[in-house]
Amino acid sequence: MKVLKCGTVIFLFLSVMLFGDNGWNAEFSKNGITVYTRTVAGSDIKEFKGIGIIDAPVEVVNNALDDVPNLANWMPDCLVSIIAEKKSDDYMILYQVIKTPWPLNSRDFTFETRIIKEKDKIIRTVKAVPHSSYPPTRNYVRITNMTGQWTLLRQDNNTRTLATYQIKTDPAGNIPVSIANTTSKKLPYETILRLREQAKNSKYNK
Questions:
Q1: What are the pLDDT digits (tens) for 83-92?
Q2: CATH code at position 9
């Protein structure tokens, strides 16, 4: 019990030291994952961030996120995940389809992922960008305004990872603000929780 309390204190301390306040408000904590929100100037849609420990080295967690086709099997509401163009090992364009609550139309988008590897962490930035291979269609509502980031920070001699998932998006179309914010608030928590399970797969330990 003392170890658990100590770990919790260290986790909270690191969260404050790394990210400070910067307008973020803690929404809830569950299963060792804390979700934060903050307002975005000129928008009613909030920005969201989740922080939690994953019991795997940074490289293993990054490898799980690199398995693009498999993202559709575990990321919340992700129906399709495809590499539209791989420019290098650290830069690619992805296409995804995201399920939205009935009776709303599902969303799709293309976005770039850039991977920055540093001594103590790996950062994965994402940003919506157009791509000629996947133009907008009538089947989905196209998201064109989205930015986000994964920060994977080494912990305990790289036996664990402090993962931060931050996302800011305009879901486009006629989605009530309350639904958009409620749905998005769950996203960082569910994503980190499921990523923990993916990181246990031995195929990512390479």
A1: 999 999 999 9
A2: 3.30.530.20
